[in-house]
Amino acid sequence: MTKKKILCILLALILVLLAFCGCGKKSENSVVIYSSLEEFRNEYLSKRIKEQFPDYDVTIQYLPSGKNVAKIKAEGKDATEADIILGVDSGYLNSLSDILTDLSSYDTSHYLQDCVDPQHKYLAWERYSGGIIVNKSILQQKELSVPQSYDDLLKPEYKDLIIMSNPNSSSTGYIFLKSLCNAWGEDQAFEYFDKLSENIYQFSSSGSGPVNALVQGEAAIGLGMVFQAVQEINNGADLEILYFDEGSPYSISCCSVIDGRLERPAVKEVYDYLMNTLCYEDKQNFSPEPIFQDQNTPVEHYPQDIPYSDMTGMDTPGVKDELLAKWKY
Fold first, then answer.
1. Would you call 170 helix, strand, or coil by DSSP?
2. What distances in angstroms separate CA 8 from CA 1, 13, 16, one per listed residue?
3. Cβ contacts of 179 within 8 Å, gap of 6 or more
C-alpha cells in the first residue's frame, strides 16, 4: 500500500472519529423544549422566541403529557435532548423531581398559593379547566337534547357521539377521572367510566382531541378543555360549554428545567423569557384562568366564575399511578 493511500485512510479515520465525538453534542446556542401545549400555542411561542433570540437555535417539540414524561424518563437526565419541559401538569412533573433543576431562586410571591410548588421544581404556566363541550348543531340535527348531568351521558341515544381523552396519555383525561373519584369515590367513578365507555366514540391520545372532533363534526359531546372550546367559539364554531353538579375539573400545568441545564446561558435566557414574558402573553391570548394574584386577562366568551371541582390529591405521590393502573381503555 502506498504512503498516499495510507494517509488517505488515516485522514478518513480521523474525520470519522471527529464526527463521532461530535454526535449528540449540543451547541451552546441550542435549546430544546419538550412541550405539551397545543401546536398553535407552540407556534406562537416559537415565533416570539425567534424574534427575541435570533441567534439561538430553539426547537419546540410537541408531545402529549404522558408521552412527554415517559420519553424523558426513558432517556434519563444526561441523555435527554430536552432542556425545558413545558405545559406538563404538576402531578406528572412530581414523578420527574429527581432530575429537575431547583428553581427556589425564582420569586413566586406573585403566584396564587395553590400554584406554588413547595419543592421548587417547577413554575406554574397555566390553570386549565375542563367542561362538557357540546356541538349544538349536531345535537339539533339528531334531535337530541343537551345533557344535564354525567348520568345523562349514559343514555343510549348518545352512543358513539361522545369523545374523551385517555387519562394514560393526557392530563385532560386524567383531571376528569380524578374529579369524579374525588366526588363519588374510586369504585363508583370507575363503574361510571365502564358504562360511559359504551357510548364513547374515541379515547383520544391528546387533550385537544375532544374539541377537535367536535369542530370536525366527528362527535357531538366532548369532555374537553374550556380554553380550547372558547377559542373555537370565537372562531365561529357552534359549541356550548356545560358544567355539571360535580364542577369543572382542573389542573396546573408548569414549566421545568432538566437538572444542570440552567447553567447554560442560552437555556436560562430562554427559560426566563418564557416565565417573565411569554407566560403572561399566553394568559392574555389563550388560557386566561388565574395563576397570578390580581390577574386580569379577559378573553371574549370565556366563562366567568367557573365552578371548580374538588381536585384534592392531584399532586400526592403515587395517587396518579394507582388510578391509572386501574384504567383499562
1. coil
2. 11, 9, 12
3. 130, 246, 247, 249, 309, 310, 311
